[in-house]
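Example record

One chain of 245 residues, shown exactly as stored in the release files.
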Amino acid sequence: MSPRKAMQQIVDYKNDPGNGYTNSLLCFMQLFIVSNRSNTWYFANNASEHFRFDADEHFLPLYQWAAPDNKKITHLDDFAEAFLAKCTLAEMISRYTVLIQSERKLMMMRPYQIYAVQAIVDCIQQNRGNGYIWHTTGSGKTLTSFKASTLLKDNPDIEKCLFVVDRKDLDRQTRQEFNRFQPGCVEENTNTETLVQRLLSDDYTDKVIVTTIQKLGLALDANHRQPYRQRLKPLRDKRMVFIFD
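Predicted structure tokens for this chain:
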């Protein structure tokens, strides 16, 4: 059974000027759950313009919960036990929901994105060395990286978190996406000098940096005509996080 009917009922409730919930306490809800008991879905509460269906009558975006091995948890009882546990639900609302401020839109993260973020943060906090996350095109890698960077930004033991891409157009694209999720959270590094200055900055807004591998390579090149590497020596014993796309 499709969740279309339940979704349409929620849309109708939202748009009902007399009996709708827009002027009640229900408007403060951050997420909805719909189920026919056998299949269960969750999605973010948003303004009416963000509730839409595609050509195949599928609501976008609507997600099913899954275990860390990506096995779907669809039955309502199993879903409630896994998803509605107090700690899990609190984390979904406080840590794994992203507000796109420019669009006044909430985004719920998919299960695999959440597990990826948890793995990144745990690996760094436990100092377990390097690791990699494999995601397909269009799977939301930028959102995963943004959320991981945001959580790491609040870790006082980490000096900087660098998101490194391999070409200039990705640098611009990633910055635009990061700033879409949180306006002004990353700035453009117009050249290597700007990158070095931001690496040495104590400003909290410079803690997450998006840069190209070419600029980073020049900053660490001992043979470069500018003494970038020498200037970066104070960072040698600091904890630095590098996320490569």
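Notes: Strands lie at 31-35, 40-44, 52-53, 59-60, 97-100, 105-108, 160-165, 208-212, 240-244.
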